[in-house]
Amino acid sequence: MPRFLVVLDVDSTLIEQEIIELLAEESGSGAEVASITLDAMNGKLDFEESLRARVATLKGLSISVFARVRRSIAVTKGVPELVRSVQAAGGRVGAISGGFHEVIDPLAAGLGLDRWRANTLEVEDGILTGRVRGRIIDAKAKAETLESWSRIYSIPLENAVSIGDGANDLEMMRLAGLSVAFEAKAPVRDQAGVILDDRDLSRVLPLLGLEG
Fold this sequence. Notes:
The chain has 212 residues and is an alpha/beta fold. It has helices at residues 10-14, 19-27, 30-41, 47-56, 65-72, 79-88, 101-111, 139-152, 170-175, 186-191; strands spanning 5-8, 92-100, 115-124, 127-133, 160-164, 178-182, 194-196. The protein has one domain (5-208): Rossmann fold, CATH 3.40.50.1000. It has a seven-stranded mixed sheet with strand order 4-3-2-1-5-6-7, sandwiched between helices.
C-alpha cells in the first residue's frame, strides 16, 4: 500500500467558511470582501492583490475577533475520517491556506494535521493594522510547500493528493499525482483529475484504496 501525502486548501475545503469573510463580517466589510473573494477564486484577480485589499478592510479590529471567528467555523464533513485513515496507512495530511495562522493553528492542531501553513496578520498593541506580515501564501507558495513536505516525508509527488476549490490551488494541484476539485470554481473543475461535488471529504478515501 503506497503512503500518501494529502494536502488540502482550508477555506471552503477543510472548513465550510471563508475565514477572511468571517473576519470581514466583524469589521462591517462583509459584502465588499465576499465580492473580492469570488473574483479571486475564479481567477479574475491576482490573489496577492486581492488578499491585501481584503485585509485592509480589517484595520482597527481587536485580536479578540479571532476567538469569535473560531467559534463560527464548521469543519467539513469527512475530514476526521480522511485524516485518521491516511495517517493509519502511514501517510501524512497537511493544509495550506491563504487564510490566517491566528485562526487556523488551533483548528489544525485539534484535527491532528501533520503540517499546516498560512498567512499571518500584522498586529500592533492588540489591534489589526490591515496588513499581512511576511510572504503572502499564494499559488506559488502553495506549490513550493507541497514540494517541501514531499521531501520532508519522503513521499513522492506522484503519491501526493491536492484538494482545493479555487484558482489559488491550481499550481499545487498540477504537481500532485491526484488533484481533486472540491465543489470547485470553473478554473479548477476544468483542470482537476477528479471532481467531487458531494461535500464529504471521506469520499476521497476510495480514490486512494483506503476506507474510513
